[in-house]
Amino acid sequence: MQSIAVSELRANLMRILKNIEKGSSISITSRGRVVAKLIPPEDSIKLAEQKLAKVRQSAKIYDVLSPISEKWKADS
Predict the structure, then answer these.
(1) Which of 28, 49, 53, 55 could connect to 36 by a Cys-Cys bridge, CB 3.0–4.6 Å?
(2) How many angstroms separate the CA atoms of 16 and 1, rounded?
């Protein structure tokens, strides 16, 4: 992770934001101490697709519309 001073961030904000948009992460320092971190946002659609792909590996699909002859405990 790169490190950048607050003054340099102010002077080069657009260039730095473009780097973050491409996936870079940057620590922002003030007087040599890290005060913040800039990281790219999570792509929520891509993240959802990854989670669904993981669920697909273990999911089982059954016929949920046809009636069954099995008695439910709630019916008793």
Answers:
(1) 28
(2) 13
DSSP at 13: H
pTM equals: 0.55
Pair of tokens at residue 27: 């620590």
| pLDDT the model gives residue 46 | 84
pLDDT in tens, 31-47: 999 999 999 888 878 88
In a domain, 71, yes or no: no
Nearest CA to 26 out of 74, 18, 46, 47 is that of 18
In a domain, 58, yes or no: yes
- 47 within domain boundaries: yes
- Tokens 């099995």 found at: 70
- Overall number of domains in the chain: 1
**Structural domain range at position 17:** 2-64
